[in-house]
Amino acid sequence: MSESPDExxxxxxxxxxxxxxxxxxxxxxxxFLRWTWRQLTSMRTALILLFLLALGAVPGSVVPQNxxxxxxxxxxxxxxxxxTPIYExxxxxNVYSSPWFSAIYILLMVSLVGCILPRTRVYLRAMRxxxxxAPRNLARLPEHxxxxxxxxxxxxxxxxxxxxxxxxxxxxxxxxxxxxxAAERGYLREAGNLLFHVxxxxxxxxxxxxSLLGYKGGVLVxxxxxxxxxxxxxxxxxxxxxxxVGSLEPFSFKVTDFDVTFDTGKRNFGLAxxxxxxxxxxxxxxxxxxxxRISVNHPLSxxxxxxxxxxxxYAPDITVRDTEGNVEYSGPVIFLPEDTMFxxxxxxxxxxxxxxxxxxxxxxxxxxxxxMETGPTSVFPDAKLPLLxxxxxxxDLGLDDGIPxxxxxxxxxxxxxxxxxxxxxxVDLAPGKGIIKSDGSLIPSTVTLPDGLGTITFNGVSRFVxxxxxxxxxxxxxxAGVVLxxxxxxxxxxxxxxRIWVSxxxxxxxxxxxxAGLDRSAxxxxxxxxxxxxxxxxxxxxxxxx
Amino acid sequence: xSHAQFEVLSNQAVAICGAFYFIALLAHLAEWAAGxxxxxxxxxxxxxxxxxxxxxxxxxxxxSADTLVAVQESTEKxxxxxxxxxxxxxxxxxxxxxxxxxxxxxxxxxxVPWGNMYExxxxxxxxxxxxxxxxxxxxxxxxxxxxxxxxLLVVLMLDALLLYDPVFKLRDALxxxxxxxxxxxxxxxxxxxxxxxxxSVLYLxxxxxxxxxxxxxxxxxxxxxxxxxxxxxxxxxxxxRVHAFxxxxxxxxxxxxxxxxxxxxxxxxxxxxxxxVWAFITWVVYAAYLHARATAGxxxxxxxxIAIIGLLTLWFNFVGINFFFGSGSQHSYA
Lengths: 546, 334
Ligand code: HEM
Prior knowledge:
The structure holds two protein chains of two kinds.
Chain A: H1 9-23, H2 29-40, H3 43-57, H4 59-62, H5 70-79, H6 83-90, H7 99-128, E1 143-149, H8 153-163, E2 168-175, E3 178-185, H9 188-213, E4 215-222, E5 226-228, E6 236-239, E7 252-262, E8 272-282, E9 290-295, E10 300-302, E11 305-321, E12 327-332, E13 336-337, E14 344-350, E15 357-365, E16 368-371, E17 375-378, E18 387-395, E19 415-417, E20 419-420, E21 423-424, E22 426-429, E23 435-436, E24 442-443, E25 446-449, E26 454-471, H10 475-494, E27 498-507, E28 510-519, H11 527-545
Antiparallel strand pairs in A: 1-28, 2-3, 3-27, 4-6, 4-26, 5-7, 7-8, 8-9, 10-11, 11-12, 11-26, 13-14, 14-15, 15-18, 16-17, 18-19, 18-22, 20-21, 23-24, 25-26, 27-28
Helix pairs in contact in A: 1-2, 3-7, 7-9, 8-11, 9-10
Chain B: H1 3-35, H2 40-52, H3 65-106, H4 117-135, H5 145-163, H6 177-212, H7 225-228, H8 232-266, H9 274-293, H10 301-324
Bound molecules: protoporphyrin IX containing FE (HEM).
């Protein structure tokens, strides 16, 4: 940015306005409004707002966000009971939709509009303007060269004009042996800059519209399980404020199978490679059934709603019976993976158990290993040697309180650990024939619970997939905005606006030629350009003579 | 060659190029030590001599023939050391490139070598070297040499000691052409921002030094490094040029390629994941830098400070985030 005031008509205008406003005291309401507007739309305010925006974004990376990972946010709240109410008030769990964060970017948007409008006006005028006449004293300009030649001034100017290709050129004279050329280029720089700033608005609007009209949901589905696209089937559902649940596309699908290979090589031991899930789906209840395979980076799109495979894990298949053998619970139960070897934790709730409701809480190890330090753990992510180890609770599960409960947490307020021989009773289960331990004892697939509470059986291992389902009607707008912004930015940063003047006059039988330039952009360096032009002209002149 | 052998080759190449950066650093330090005996305008005189084709360097400084000879000797020494440093840096850059390429060949199946922090740092530092060498002549970067070589030496050491990870296969999420595009753009921008940040740091140092310098026409004194660092206007301009190059690339990496990839992998363009938050913060800070340069009262010093803040947020993002937020980020494998 050059320092001379005419370089930045808009900014200069702001500065003057501010000075003027400052001398009017006391401020009339209208003056005050005007003053406020000018303050708000000044570069300095924009700068400060940008800083605030950057600062305001920080807490959202430190505190878990509801919209990003609601489980993590809930866990955080559990762990910090005293901070939680304060954080709730400050909107710390929803930073990016909190009033204060919105205030910053809305102010920035207002500032942006207030900045774009006057600049567009100035630009439209400047676009039609002719290059300004050569200043009387070219030697005063920062970049300036002089040489003399025997050629006539009009000859010099003719050549200069040809050399200034790409410039908007005005020729004056020669009259009485004196003439000059004024040239300017780089008009598109400001256009690029304006395009950039307008595009920023487009992105923000696209973002806003998208988050108002779209939704995002997450669901865990056990293989063989079904999903119908209604909000109650989601584990996590984040609709935009203007999203109506009725507009969910009426598709449904079944997860038919899940494939995963785990690397057994030393280098990438346990790394999941190519995992994919098979779906059979219908776009509407009466539609025809189609099939698809989805994997990471390859989602399925059904009428604009996308289904992504983003994770997987195990769901041990369990049956709980009473002492008479009546089934009280049966089916796969999702255990959430805790580490890269898929040590997983989960709970089983059996509200229909008699005489008391039963709850189990524990861990699942797909390939069990044991060490004295860690106890049982998983040593490989595939289900090679599965073991389920859980603590048993009996009492009231608290499901009838009307307070919604997570299916992954056990509320033990009204439950007691089941005991045997004065110790908490644990069930260790392995499917099929069980596992023979190193001491020769057997981990069975069925265990009888003490106190006549019934039996529990580990039938086998199923898998579940974690799917994300989302619809974002205006994402394309935001993305297009960013691309336009980039184009504008390139123009703004790399188009070099500059003015060049050449004057030629007769003096003592020779022609004195002066070449001068003025850079109008940030960080430009014109010396090379002026050198070039002067050198080219000088050579041309002597060639022509020869 | 087997994959494992390539990994060994890569590690050896890192050690060797570190050694060459060290040699380059020593050469440049010797260059500036020799420079203490060369008056500032000897440069200009030598330039003038070179331009006009006459070979009468050293005429600028007054003094006896003895001092003239001494100055000439020191000048030659300076040039020699500078050349050595540059050659050593060139060799280091070549070996550095081998290290990066071998790292990619070490993976099975072979892939782009940008799978983790170690590899990212290795490549970004190579971008710094290449940028420096490419701009050396155009911007007369002799003053930047000790900073760049010293920086590279330290960064490679930290990288090898603290961030080293054996070669890994890429996670599924990373197997996408957008990874290549997104990450290479991010790496180039990071390298360039780093180079620009160095100029901004020097700007602050020189500015302070100029302010603290009492009487500028004090009697002759020795010519230190800071005397030869270009003036504030040139430093600012160089810094701006490099930032202006890096900013659109960062915009592309963080706000276009990144979201497209995230959409393909996770079903959302933008999810305010810690890594994304910090990429955004970096972007906003650099936008503020560009604004500051155009705002009265913020040009110069304040702009340089903002550029440095931008660089800190940038580096924090991919070193810090992984350490502090760990699994809290979907990007934590990076
Ligand atoms: C969302 C907020 C904004 C962002 C992200 C942003 C970003 C940018 C960027 C990256 C540039 C650099 C382009 C260049 O140097 O040519 C720039 C330049 C500029 N911006 Fe903004 N801007 C924002 C808001 C504003 C506002 C509110 C104003 C009005 C006061 C403004 C006025 C300008 C001006 C005058 C320039 C040209 C500076 C120059 O000539 O170097 N910007 N902006």
